[in-house]
Fold:
Amino acid sequence: MSLYERLGGAPAFQAATDTFYRRMLSDERVSRFFDDVDMDGQIAKQRAFLTFVTGGPAEYTGKDMREAHASLLEKGLSDEHVDIVVEHLGGTLADMGAAKEDILEVAALAESVRADVLGR
Amino acid sequence: MSSATEPEPAQLLVGSQVIGLRGGETVLEALERSGFDAASGCRAGTCCKCMLRADNPPPESQRGLRPTLRHAGYFLACQARPTGTLRIDQGEAPPTLQARVQRSEVVAQDVRRIFLVTAEPLEFRPGQYIEIFHPSGATRSYSVASLPADGVLELHVRLVPEGLVSGWLHGLEEGDSLRLRGAFGQCFHVADDERKKLLLVGAGTGLAPLLGIARDALEQGHAGAIDLVHGGLAPERLYLRDELSALASRWPNLRVHHCVLKGATKREHEGSLDEVAIRLSGPLGDTRAFLCGDAGVVRLLQRSLFLAGVPSGEILADPFEAAPV
Structure:
């Protein structure tokens, strides 16, 4: 059983996506990257990301991730911002009741996305 | 040939084509098998890329969608296993109708309230918008403030400086005719929970859809609190105040608030519309929000209300995008 299923599947992740996105919008270290984005579209993407990293049914391609973040690189997106996202990801999953080892596993999977996000 | 007890075969209608569904097959699988280039992504009800519309989709294929989308018949093809006949909507544009001006009145310095009567009935939900055709063929969108039972379409038209369509609309007189089509948009009341708190926030002529949505909810027996917050730059820019007061005294669960950026009198709150709305409305976790007006204001409201606790799936926004002048 995937972590996605153990944490309650689609309904739980719908609420968790809101929590995750609120955390990032409220964090002044990263909030500026979301200034000009369409909120509905962004929430759908965050939901797909959370679903993907917890082993749920999500469509994920490195190419999409690269394209989505290309303009943010010009605004200064760097490793420290990816670290902050991973931090909020862990916090969100902890709020949902995930165990520490699960969170570490997810963080490792999220690491694999880093190169795509930063266009390396 | 088929008896009354025999169940109707599961099938899809796409235009004139009939596609029989094989056992356990989803709508998405049947469309792909039949050679349709159907959009899809996760195939698990998460990404919403395979969203289609039909009149009677299976309810389990609408899980997780916004209430207005469910009401309008949208569903996820990857989650749909219909039992009877499902006609897939192919997104035909609604027909163009003739209408005439019944009445036009000035309600604020640059806003007219224009009442139209269509030659044939127009199907719409209050808060949705229609497209008006200028004689040149240019179109502009206007939200409907009235209810179908009113028998008229009420629009609030702000005169845009140098505006092609708004200037022409302001000059129309009783009896003049025009063409329109509709209705469009996903910002309207859905009576799925009569106790839910509703928060309606709009700036300028964003009042039009909100007035329609508030009246619609009240007429349908909504019992939860409804807060309507109308914002403008200054007190003289706010309009239909008497009508809103009358509506609030008729319905005890409706509260109307006015908000201005500067120069508030005793009758208005002063400050940024999002901050005032959040302060007035109390806890927002179980609230549905309707946000209407110029795109910039609506985006600000969307973000602020979401951060203040309104679930993203309960935020119904109708941003007015400015047309090129």
Notes: The two ends of chain B are 62 Å apart (CA to CA). Residues 207-219 of chain B form the longest helix (13 residues).
